[in-house]
Write a structure and sequence with these properties.
Elements: H1 3-20, E1 28-32, H2 38-46, E2 51-54, H3 57-63, E3 72-75, E4 93-97, H4 100-112, E5 117-122, H5 136-147, E6 152-159, H6 171-186, E7 196-199, H7 205-210, E8 215-218, H8 220-223
Parallel strand pairs: 1-2, 1-8, 2-3, 3-4, 4-5, 5-6, 6-7
Amino acid sequence: MEQEDFETRYSLWRERLGEASGRWGGVEICAVTKTVDASVVNHALECGVDLIGENRVQELRDKAPLLTRPCRKHIIGQLQTNKVKYLIGLADMIQSVDRVNLAEEISRQAEKKGVVMPVLVQVGIAKEPQKGGVYEEELVDFLTRASALPGLSVRGLMAVMPKADDPEDVRPYFRRMRVWFDRLRDHPVGQARMEILSMGMSHDCLIAAQEGATMVRIGSALFGERPHR
């Protein structure tokens, strides 16, 4: 992709998302760089992107040394506990914390390095087991346990919505996520802080912005469709 093409797309999406999220005060773009070459990511950084999201730990490890500008790096995909040790000091946030043993391992590895790892708790708002996520009825208990871990700093919630031909079909899930976010922000659970509500991807990010996302994760909308590996 030419730099000018990306710059045009990025500017357009910033404008569209800003309009969609007007009542909420704006939304941040996490540029999903899964399968995107480092050279293309570097073009994106030159165009103003300062937050990227990677699904796979190894891809982030391979790509990070090739980036020519500083940026925040988030892990947004399902995470195996045996990969956690590679992320401490590399990723700035893990968005997909969805199980107690994962939260405990992140805390353990962070403590070993004397740091506190910022995380989001992934909520299985549609109860799709293949996507992971803490179910609503377990969320308060999970937040209590996770936020008590010394190596973790819970900063908000994340969700992956069901695929739908019409994004309007998933609007109720986005709305429920915002209800949870507001409730937990106004009535905190444990040490959890509600600063980020990460939801919405390329096909439904405008609906997410309208319903109160503070961050959307978009890849193909910015970089174009890419072949799956």
